[in-house]
Amino acid sequence: MVKSTVRFPEPVVEEIESLVEEGQFESKSEFYRFSADYVLSRTLDEYEPETIDYEAIEAEVIPQTERELGGDGDDDGPPFFDSVAFVRKLALRGRFSDAEDFIDHQYVPGDRHAVLLEEILRLYREDAAAEEQSPAPEPDRETTTRSR
Question: Residue ranges of region Disordered (predicted)?
């Protein structure tokens, strides 16, 4: 193995040390090797991690839901079209923050369904803002004719 020196902010090192103390990793070196392998495996399609027991560490440290972001893991959340209908109902009633709370509590950040729901919500919000900005139509005024 090649030895490399890297400088980290102290709070980062403190968090890594706490993970080692909690038993998540055997050592700081294992954390650094795993972290590098993990990022490279997610960034480069053809990269194969070389950390010993990589899969076991990944399964222990990174929850399954986070490893499958954007997957079709609908088992943990509500069916997507039910979510669309619920977000639409809240948006039509102007309850945008309730719709955001629903999305945040039902989906992990970055989930493709959450992204689509947020985009739908954005469109409803833009429509509501446009309606507020447009002047109200003037009532039809009947023309009166006066007889002299």
Answer: 127-148
